[in-house]
Specification:
The complex is a heterodimer. By secondary structure, chain A is α/β, with parallel strands linked by helices. Chain A contains 6 helices and 15 strands. In chain A, strands 11-10-9-12-8-1-6-7-13 form a 9-stranded mixed beta sheet, with helices on both faces. In chain A, strands 2-5 form a two-stranded antiparallel sheet. Chain A has a two-stranded antiparallel ribbon with strand order 3-4. By secondary structure, chain B is of the alpha/beta class. Chain B is built from 7 helices and 16 strands. In chain B, helix 2 packs across helix 3 and helix 4 runs parallel beside helix 7. In chain B, helix 1 links the parallel strand 1 and strand 2. The N and C termini of chain B lie far apart (58 Å). Chain B has a 7-stranded parallel beta sheet, with helices on both faces. Chain B is elongated, with a radius of gyration of 24 Å. The chains are: A alpha/beta, B alpha/beta. Chains A and B meet through helix 4, strand 9, strand 10, strand 11 and strand 14 of A and helix 3, strand 5, strand 7, strand 8 and strand 11 of B. Strand 14 of chain A pairs antiparallel with strand 8 of chain B, so a sheet runs across the interface.
Chain lengths: 254, 311
């Protein structure tokens, strides 16, 4: 059985700077594998048995050339890596990304395609589902448990009000929830072994992808206004000061 | 603000029809409500027309109706909005609709605006650090709307809008439900707590959390933390982490103890009505975000405050 697991590189959100104009600067934020995609990679690696294959795939801009991040993905268990790089894909919205992932994954061939619940940057929560719809195969989101059966997978889907148990015929796309597993921390051996694994690099021409008129454009990104606060400050931690703090607290609660 | 010609509303949960229809009314000239359960008919009387989907049974799932709904909504050449509740089912259905209809899809929308013949939608990005605004270029737009964006309209139509029965169109990628299970009670949900205490790096040892829990018990509060406590030290579960990609508080008070107040944390606290901060460092950014602040040692303030509250 062949598992394909998708990932995206996103800026480290802890290092994003918010300017006085409420815009965002990501120039000091290094790239990382989107945390939700680590769940997808981990799920694939856990499901794979002897003779199965786990392939990781990403489509995007030149950030994908970062050798350290390639090793990072491969150190988490996938057997090989496929990358489609094109500057059009460096900031594409979900539909364009999904078309590229659909074309590339069809070229590779797979039984089960795994995605995270959304990306750490856009968190559009649709790319994996769109890939399934484009390929006209079942695509299920919010999956919190997967079992491999003969010709299908049995999955649990954690919804707001209940859990659905579904038998999904293969090939299929499964978008896992962030609580499906605890992504592993790669061992030293895995990190050293990652450099020896195969990386296939494609252009968009190799997968027959061309950019199309975008369904939507991201026209602005801004930080929300922080709520206005009173900023009443007490200096000191003696009994009187603590009592004053208690009074403010009691007031706020009434 | 000119209006969208036609808005289709569907929700997999009865409670959401009121706010979805209110939004649809503000944005659209003609509002069609789609229901799957005939008992929802009284919830959608504000629509101009009601469409009841056929073929409901215990194993059927609403996501399988993408073809049925796409066929229904794709009549004519008018500008069309399909407005769904931002539930997991809603998002599953929305993705299929967007591909079938070649329509832009935006999930978890918190603000919708229609002007210059374009629909604009905002949603959270970077784990809540920012909002992104997207302009939709397609004739049909699919939107899953977050709760609480529109106030429900109080008055209902006196007359019942016309009702149309819609046949289910089976599809090749149909997946039926084998079994449904009730969910076991959730663990902590800080997003719903009224009173929350947050701890940060000012806490020196894991054992000192006991002191925080004592205060929480005196205050009848839940306990959350900043990212280093959950992800660096693993002193608390990830569900208790307040901030970017974590919990967004809606509490009455947020008592931040030994938290420096980085913006990545504060976006999670921004929704609290009152923020109270204790920190040794007078220059800590947390005091910029606090209604009340005390410059001092949490190891003195926490036991002292606990004593005072117990009296």
């Amino acid at each position: 059985m062949r598992f394909l697991t998708c990932y995206k590189l996103v800026p480290e959100e802890q290092d994003i700077v918010i300017t006085a104009e409420k815009t965002l600067t990501t120039s000091q934020a290094g790239d990382k594998i989107s945390p939700f995609d680590l769940n997808a990679i981990e799920a694939a690696v856990q499901l794979a048995k002897d003779g199965d294959e786990v392939l990781a795939i990403s489509v995007g801009g030149k950030a994908l050339n970062n050798a350290k991040l390639r090793k990072d993905v491969l150190s988490r268990g996938p057997d090989a890596l496929y990358l489609v790089t094109d500057e059009h894909l460096s900031s594409s919205l979900p539909y364009e990304t999904a078309r590229a992932l659909a074309a590339a994954s069809q070229k590779i061939g797979f039984d089960l395609l795994l995605c995270g619940e959304g990306s750490g940057d856009l968190y559009a929560q649709q790319t994996g589902l769109l890939v399934g719809a484009i390929l006209n195969i079942p695509a299920i989101n919010a999956v919190s448990h997967i079992e491999i059966k003969e010709g299908h997978v049995s999955v649990e889907r954690t919804l707001e009000d209940e859990i659905e148990v579904l038998d999904v015929p293969l090939p299929a796309v499964i978008c896992v929830s962030s609580d499906i597993n605890e992504p592993r921390i790669p061992s030293m051996k895995a990190i050293l072994g990652a450099g020896k694994k195969s990386v296939t690099q494609w252009s968009t021409a190799d997968i027959g992808w061309e950019s199309e008129a975008a369904h939507a454009d991201l026209i602005s990104v801004y930080a929300p206004e922080q709520t206005e606060r009173k900023r009443i400050i007490i200096e000191g931690d003696g009994q009187d000061e603590i009592a004053r703090l208690r009074d403010y607290l009691a007031n706020a609660l009434s | 603000m000119n209006k969208i010609n036609k808005v289709w509303v569907f929700s997999d949960t009865t409670e959401r029809y009121a706010d979805l229809l209110s939004g649809a009314r503000q944005l659209g000239e003609h509002v069609n409500a789609v229901i799957w359960d005939e008992r929802d008919i009284n919830e959608v009387r504000q629509a101009d027309a009601i469409y009841l989907l056929g073929g409901k049974n215990d194993n059927q799932r609403i996501e399988n109706y993408a073809k049925t709904l796409a066929t229904l909504a794709d009549e004519g050449q008018e500008q069309t909005l399909i407005l769904l509740a931002a539930t997991r089912r809603g998002k599953g259905l929305a993705a299929k609709l967007s591909v079938l209809l070649q329509a832009a899809l935006i999930n978890d929308v918190v603000l919708l605006d229609h002007h210059d013949n374009h629909l604009y939608a905002e949603h959270r990005m970077y784990g809540g650090l920012a909002f992104g605004q997207e302009r939709i270029n397609t004739r049909i737009a699919v939107i899953t709307l977050a709760g609480g964006v529109y106030e429900p309209i109080a008055e209902a139509n006196t007359s019942m809008p016309p009702l149309t029965l819609v046949d289910y169109i089976p599809t090749a990628d149909e997946v039926l439900c084998r079994e449904r299970r009730t969910k076991t009670a959730n663990s902590v949900d800080l997003g719903k707590a009224r009173r929350v205490i947050g701890v940060g790096r000012g806490l020196m040892a894991k054992d000192d959390l006991q002191m925080i829990w004592n205060l929480a018990s005196a205050l009848d509060a839940e306990v959350g933390c900043s990212r280093p406590i959950a992800e660096g030290e693993h002193w608390m579960e990830r569900e208790r982490y307040v901030g970017v990609s974590g919990v967004m508080l809606k509490s009455d008070i947020y008592l931040a103890l030994g938290i420096s107040g980085q913006i990545q944390h504060m976006v999670g606290g921004n929704g609290a009505r009152t923020i109270i901060a204790v920190n040794k460092d007078k220059n800590a950014p947390i005091f910029q975000y606090a209604d009340y602040g005390l410059v001092g040692d949490i190891y003195k303030v926490v036991p002292g405050l606990t004593e005072l509250l117990k009296r």
